[in-house]
């Protein structure tokens, strides 16, 4: 046994002023839903949109469905939020009152705020209402996006407090105040952890399209993995939303049907299901968020059940050569190893 003070530093638990969550390693979560509802109501209900002599007012929030959480994992902040909002608005043109709605079907962390869909509709159609509809489309949507952006910024600022705890050497002196970054860094677990200004992936995925003006050196990746489980159990792990959420350790978008979209790892991986053969085969279009616009790869997973285990054969085509090694490592670490750990499917020595 090592003498006191001579132990391996990797095994020494760091003291914390609060004696909890050493090095911010453990997953901690705050429910931001009630706060978010109050904040969105304050930002949107009664909001006045005016420009060039025209004016519209948000008279009521007809729907505010969704949830929000703020999380800390290994010292990194992760925010999940998803809202479906319907706003009622009223305006006037040439002494005629005009009413309508603005629908925001998916305000979430998967999209930048300037890409959030806002649909403008009218309660009745006439020449005056059409004028106001154009006003709401051209002016109202942008002003509402600024209100949504305020919500997102304040969510991250308010809920970052207390999630990342100071280390002991940051609070020994009462005059020392831990420095804060102006912006909360948002990472999802898993693929592609480096901070990049990613380009948002649209849901219209076409693997035949290639980035215009770019010539990519494309490679193919093949992997064979063994899992100590039946093929239906492995198929479930790859296709059931609750199980995908478990092994990716974060919010996912998952539409399990041909043509359905998926978004994993905080938006860093996305694609579409092209073929689904229960317990046997999955074919997807697949891309990293930082790949050139319009470029998609093709993933095929074939499951073969043996007497005491299941073999998974992966074929991943059209990977840019510069990303081949990264992709292989990420499949290994964030898919196969994570699935074994999460569901106890075991590892083979040979």
TrEMBL record:
One of its GO terms (biological process) is protein folding. Coiled coil: none annotated. InterPro entries: Aha1, AHSA1-like_N, ASHA1/2-like_C, START-like_dom_sf. CDD domains: SRPBCC_Aha1. One of its GO terms (cellular component) is cytosol. It comes from the Eukaryota. One of its GO terms (molecular function) is protein-folding chaperone binding. Residues 29-161 form the Activator of Hsp90 ATPase AHSA1-like N-terminal domain. Transmembrane segments: none annotated. Belongs to the AHA1 family. PANTHER family: HEAT SHOCK PROTEIN 90 HSP90 CO-CHAPERONE AHA-1, LD43819P. This is Activator of Hsp90 ATPase AHSA1-like N-terminal domain-containing protein. It comes from Anopheles minimus.
């Amino acid at each position: 046994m090592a003498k006191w003070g001579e132990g391996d530093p990797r095994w020494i638990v760091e003291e914390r002023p609060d004696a909890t969550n050493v090095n911010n390693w453990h997953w901690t979560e705050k429910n931001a839903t009630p706060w978010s509802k109050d904040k969105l109501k304050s930002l949107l209900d009664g909001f006045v949109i005016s420009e060039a002599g025209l004016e519209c007012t948000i008279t009521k929030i007809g729907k505010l469905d969704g949830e929000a959480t703020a999380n800390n994992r290994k010292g990194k902040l992760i925010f999940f939020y998803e809202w479906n909002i319907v706003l009622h608005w009223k305006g006037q043109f040439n002494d005629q009152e005009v009413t309508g709605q603005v629908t925001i079907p998916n305000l979430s962390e998967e999209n930048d705020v300037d890409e959030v869909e806002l649909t403008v509709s009218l309660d009745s159609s006439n020449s005056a209402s059409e004028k106001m509809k154009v006003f709401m489309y051209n002016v109202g949507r942008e002003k509402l996006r600024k209100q949504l952006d305020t919500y997102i910024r304040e969510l991250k600022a308010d809920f970052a407090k207390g999630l990342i705890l100071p280390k002991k050497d940051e609070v020994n002196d009462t005059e020392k105040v831990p420095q804060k970054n102006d912006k909360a860094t948002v990472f999802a677990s898993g693929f592609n952890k480096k901070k990049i200004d990613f380009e948002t992936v649209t849901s219209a995925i076409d693997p035949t399209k290639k980035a215009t003006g770019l010539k990519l050196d494309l490679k193919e990746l093949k992997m064979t993995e063994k899992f100590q489980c039946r093929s239906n159990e492995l198929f479930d792990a790859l296709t059931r939303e609750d199980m995908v959420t478990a092994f990716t350790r974060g919010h996912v978008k998952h539409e399990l049907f041909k043509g359905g979209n998926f978004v994993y790892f905080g938006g860093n991986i996305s694609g579409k299901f092209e073929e689904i053969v229960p317990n046997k085969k999955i074919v997807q279009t697949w891309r990293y968020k930082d790949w050139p616009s319009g470029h998609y790869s093709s993933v095929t997973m074939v499951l073969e059940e043996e007497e005491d285990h299941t073999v998974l054969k992966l074929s991943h085509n059209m990977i840019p050569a510069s990303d081949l090694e990264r992709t292989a490592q990420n499949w290994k670490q964030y898919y196969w190893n994570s699935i074994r750990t999460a569901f106890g499917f075991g590892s083979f020595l040979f």
